[in-house]
Amino acid sequence: MNQITDVTTIIGQIGRDADCKQVGNTFNHAIKFPVAINQSWKDANGKEHEQTKWYTCVLWVSEKNTHLKSYFQKGSLIMIKGEALCNAWLNKDGELQSQLELRVNEWKVLRKAGQPKSVQSDSWALGDGC
């Protein structure tokens, strides 16, 4: 039986270099990095609005694939496909907090950090989530 899951695709800019941490006493590692998605629109009165949404992206890898963290550098433009989650909790003041998370299944670096906007990186392969 095939399992159907929601797949979300985002294109945005990486906010800082990825971290990679071992999870417990396993061989599993989580590569985490934030991605900013900028949205702009005009309201009914023609006024322009802009908003930035941040996703915490998580790529689960085995110990032998921890080198993949080097793909995720601050300032790079990236396309990511994965399962989107919204984590919510109450802070110490009782206020609702939330965080968007994307569990990465596939990615493609569209432009490496430091490259001019007109230069596209076609040397980076689509990842398989390892």
Task: Explain how this protein is built.
With 130 residues, the chain is mainly β. It has one domain: Nucleic acid-binding proteins (OB fold (Dihydrolipoamide Acetyltransferase, E2P), Beta Barrel). The protein is 0% helix and 55% strand. It is built from no helices and six strands. The chain has a five-stranded mixed β-barrel with strand order 1-3-4-6-5. A hairpin with a 5-residue loop joins β2 (19-22) and β3. Residues 121-130 have low confidence and may be disordered.
Explain the layout of strands and helices.
Layout: E1 8-14, E2 19-22, E3 28-42, E4 48-62, E5 77-90, E6 96-111
Parallel strand pairs: 4-6
Antiparallel strand pairs: 1-3, 1-5, 2-3, 3-4, 5-6
Please sum up the structure shown.
The protein has 130 residues and is mainly β.
